[in-house]
TrEMBL record:
GO MF terms held by the record: isomerase activity
Pfam families linked: AP_endonuc_2
InterPro entries attached to this UniProt entry: IolE/XylAMocC-like, Xyl_isomerase-like_sf, Xyl_isomerase-like_TIM-brl
Organism of provenance: Amycolatopsis thermophila
Record keywords: Isomerase
Protein name: Sugar phosphate isomerase/epimerase
Xylose isomerase-like TIM barrel domain span: 19-245
Coiled-coil portions: none
Top-level lineage group: Bacteria
Length: 273
């Protein structure tokens, strides 16, 4: 199964440990934060060799910055990784306060810069950010109207933002860049930011109807590739190999139960061949 292990599922493991554990568990891709890349202490050639040795590719790249305020210096590293190692897409939220109408042009500009490297951009809605719901994020993505721009669909954010299947109606299935799997506690905590970053559950192991959401995506025609993203202090406390194995098993099980068709994917470098 073509399944990715998010950077945040094994967030405290060093890069060699993360890649080895993800590959052994069955993942075909990993996610990276820009800090993971810059702090790995490895050359680009060494990272390529590490990934090739384990048969794993970089699926998604994450960096939190106010991209509406202009070009961030970290973009140089982001696009160097794309050029030297390969990546499929960027996941970008928005934590700075801007009216939605003022995000359209900057999002389009970010997509244009990413397009120069063959990289997709998924705008992620988060219920504790300044773009909180699928309709809000789609308003920006639709207005920007970039071929490589779309939506990152995270099940935790969907469930905690009160998402409904009918919200999918206005979003073309092809514009869902990726789906991120996880689950929620029975009741939301008083601080959604804290809960989202420390107390997510493995997909299918919580109170959310994860299989039902996946079926709704499938029925809408979504076939985006999938990542398991579980920020969890409990998962962090386990040996990395055990955490990776549990994450893969839970993700594969809920996908199979929902009948969600997980497609293969390619990095920007593979697309260019």
């Amino acid at each position: 199964m073509f399944l990715n292990c998010s950077a945040n599922t094994l967030r405290f493991a060093d890069l060699p440990t993360r890649v080895a554990a993800a590959a052994a568990a069955g993942f075909t891709g990993i996610g990276l934060r820009v800090g993971d890349y810059l702090g790995a202490g490895l050359s680009d050639a060494d990272i390529r060799d590490l990934l090739d040795h384990h048969g794993v590719r970089v699926f998604e790249l994450e960096h939190t910055w106010d991209w509406a305020a202009g070009v961030d210096p970290a973009e140089e590293a982001m696009f160097r990784l794309a050029a030297e190692i390969g990546v499929r897409h960027l996941n970008v939220p928005m934590f700075s306060e801007h009216p939605l109408s003022e995000l359209v042009e900057p999002f389009a500009a970010l997509c244009d810069r990413a397009a120069e490297h063959g990289v997709l951009v998924g705008f992620e809605f988060l219920p504790y950010s300044h773009v909180r719901t699928l309709p809000e994020v789609w308003e920006v993505v639709a207005a920007a109207d970039r071929r490589n721009g779309g939506v990152t669909f995270d099940l935790w954010h969907w469930l905690r933002s009160g998402g409904r299947p009918e919200d999918l109606a206005g979003v073309p299935a092809s514009k869902i860049v990726t789906v991120q799997l996880c689950d929620v506690l029975p009741e939301p905590g008083p601080d959604l930011t804290e809960e989202a970053r420390h107390r997510r559950l493995l997909p299918g192991r919580g109170a959310g109807d994860t299989a039902g959401v996946l079926r709704a995506l499938r029925e809408h025609g979504v076939t985006a590739p999938v990542s398991v993203e579980v920020f969890s202090d409990e998962l962090d406390a386990l040996p990395t190999a055990d955490a990776a194995r549990l994450a893969y098993g839970a993700g594969a099980e809920v996908l199979d139960r929902a009948g969600y068709p997980v497609p293969p994917w390619r990095t920007n470098l593979e697309q260019a061949r």
